[in-house]
Design brief:
cytoskeleton, coiled coil, cell cycle, single chain, Centrosomal protein POC5, mainly alpha, elongated, 217 residues
């Protein structure tokens, strides 16, 4: 019984798988048929639309051919007029170009002359400035030299006055010192005289006492 069960189960599973595969295959076939039908319908509609457009284009082409056939003379006349106008326009453009070139040349020449004048004025101004600066520097040097000379003279006069005052002060101090020295010398001489007299008086007194002592003996 167990063996029979094992044999039956795989057969049933295989049958189910085959059935599902057939169903899936049929479904794919139907889906593919449906897509083919839809694509054919789209293709048919597209071909029909293209056919209608071709018919319309044929009619439009026929209409253009008729119009062109009728308007050849008008077109030729219009082209002739257009060529004449183009020729006149070209002539006008040529004249305008010549005038523009002359105008540009005149402007360029005027600009060059203006630049040359500006450079000349600039160079002249530089020369004038250099000359004025040189003269100004010379005058400034003279002024500075005079100012320095005057300042030096003032300083010399001030130093001379200061030194003379100092010399006078030192001379007065020297005279005062000399006077003091003379006074000291005089005082020293008086002191020496006084000492000599005192010494002599002492010597005389001592001699008198000695003589008195000898006479007493």
């Amino acid at each position: 019984n167990f063996t029979n069960c094992i044999t039956v189960i795989p057969l049933t599973f295989q049958t189910n798988v085959l059935t599902e595969l057939k169903k899936w295959k049929l479904s794919l076939i139907e889906h593919h048929k449906l897509q083919m039908r839809q694509e054919k319908e789209k293709h048919t509609a597209h071909v029909r639309r293209l056919s209608n457009e071709m018919e319309n284009l044929k009619e439009l082409l026929h209409t253009y051919e008729v119009c062109i056939g009728r308007k050849d003379e008008v077109v030729i006349a219009n082209l002739t007029q257009a060529l004449e106008r183009q020729k006149e326009r070209t002539e006008l453009m040529r004249k305008f170009t010549l005038w523009r070139i002359q105008h540009v040349n005149a402007k360029q020449e005027e600009y060059q002359n203006r630049i040359a004048d500006r450079q000349f004025r600039t160079a002249l101004m530089k020369k004038v400035w250099a000359a004025w600066r040189s003269l100004s520097e010379e005058k400034w040097k003279e002024k500075v030299a005079k100012a320095c000379q005057l300042r030096a003279e003032d300083v010399c006069v001030q130093l001379t006055n200061d030194y003379e005052a100092k010399i006078a002060e030192l001379t007065a101090a020297l005279e005062q010192t000399k006077a003091e020295m003379l006074q000291l010398h005089s005082e020293r001489e008086q002191y020496e005289d006084t000492m000599k007299k005192a010494f002599m008086r002492g010597v005389c007194a001592l001699n008198l006492e000695t003589m008195t002592m000898f006479q007493g003996k």
